[in-house]
Design brief:
Length: about 400
């Protein structure tokens, strides 16, 4: 066996020995509260399709029509000949939806963070991030090569210490704070008003990832930033198009000048083939639905199901803690325990994969439950029965 193959096999064996080996689960069905993996039908409590738009006839028809009009692929990067009218229409719709001057669409949420942060920060600059931000922001910091400081989760005192350090050690640097609005693995919400006040006191900038807030919070469903009335005090808003909006991709929202700078400096934007017409059309239709009465009806159904999910946990003897979003974690501790509990639920017809290191901290492995507007009380009754079954009964 070659040295290369030996290295690969040793790495895989190390993952297996620590219960950290991951495998792809293939589903045979449409995105919905019930899915099939070819072996059985499962109630899915792991999707981020919060409003059920990914399986909407309106989004599917929009995608089909876009293929007929614009083709299956864009054929080029955006700055060559890959920008079609449908791309700029989406970006105009996104900016109008968020209430910003402009928006820029990317292929993925990961590419969105990477492109934005590396375009704005150099090696002499400072990025201060919440400990629990998404991996895309952490990786973007590494790509930028900037000075990185991490503050304890939602700890304003620790954030202020990091800002003081930046001003003292790097007085001429640009300082950017990055946080999620709704945290993807815990479902809790950042104290955005306090963070905004701190960044203004210390002359920093703020980037807020609204991946799990867009479509769910705020009077116009723009997100937590709108909920807290901070739209004009946050320099950079980021969102995904693949969760509440129901399509795929990501976007940055902000001033026209910010977007123009990203067009010129964001490498993940410049050097990628443009998003497919189908995904762009689906995203635009998703945004249209979000802004209308149907979007509000779906949101109201979602929040009713969030309350029902909380009660399901309590009735089954679990402790959900404070539930402030459609994301409810069940902390298991070890990876082995999380895998065992996930497998038990699978045997009961419930799909909730185990979330393990490095997605979460060591000894913080969990089952991450998410609820959508399309779940039913019957789905929750089956979940309650499964959660109420002791592990040693399996």
């Amino acid at each position: 066996m070659s040295a290369f193959c030996t290295y690969i096999e040793n790495e895989l064996e190390d993952l297996r020995s620590k219960d950290l080996f991951r495998q792809i689960r293939t589903l045979d069905s449409l995105p919905a509260p019930t899915v099939s993996d070819g072996k059985r039908e499962l109630i899915n409590f792991s999707s981020n399709d919060y409003l059920g738009l990914a399986n909407s006839d309106d989004l599917k028809e929009a995608a089909k029509a876009a293929i007929d009009e614009y083709g299956a692929g864009a054929g080029s990067a955006r700055l060559i000949c890959g920008t079609q009218r449908i791309h700029t229409d989406l970006e105009e719709a996104l900016a109008e939806f968020k209430g910003t001057e402009a928006a820029l669409a990317f292929n993925t949420g990961y590419a969105t963070a990477a492109g934005c942060i590396t375009a704005l920060l150099s090696r002499k600059d400072v990025l201060i991030i919440d400990k629990l931000v998404h991996a895309c922001i952490v990786d973007a910091a590494r790509q930028a090569g900037c000075h990185l400081r991490v503050y304890r989760h939602n700890d304003l005192n620790d954030l202020e210490k990091k800002l003081q350090w930046a001003n003292k050690k790097h007085p001429d640097a640009r300082t950017l704070i990055a946080t999620e609005s709704v945290f993807s693995m815990d479902g809790d919400i950042a104290p955005l008003l306090n963070i905004v006040e701190l960044k203004e006191n210390y002359g920093a900038w703020l980037m807020v990832d609204e991946a799990h807030g867009t479509g769910l919070f705020g009077e116009h469903r723009r997100g937590v930033i709108e909920e807290y009335k901070l739209s004009d005090r946050v320099e950079i808003q980021m969102a995904t198009l693949g969760k509440a909006i129901g399509a795929s991709g990501g976007a940055i929202f902000g001033s026209r000048s910010l977007i123009d700078l990203l067009i010129n400096h964001a490498r993940s934007f410049i050097y990628s083939t443009a998003p497919t017409p189908a995904s762009v059309a689906a995203a635009k239709k998703g945004v249209e639905i979000l802004q209308g009465t149907e979007g509000e009806k779906r949101r109201q159904r979602l929040w009713a199901m969030v309350d029902n999910l909380k009660n399901t946990f309590i009735d089954s003897g679990q402790s959900p803690g404070i539930v402030r979003s459609p994301i409810v974690p069940l902390i298991c501790g070890s990876s082995e325990s999380a895998l065992s509990r996930s497998e038990q639920l699978y045997d009961s017809g419930i799909l909730v994969p185990a979330i393990r290191y490095p997605t979460v901290a060591r000894n913080q492995a969990r089952l991450r439950f998410t609820i959508t507007a399309d779940h039913t009380l019957d789905h929750l009754a089956q979940l309650e029965a499964a959660l109420s079954t002791p592990e040693d009964d399996e």
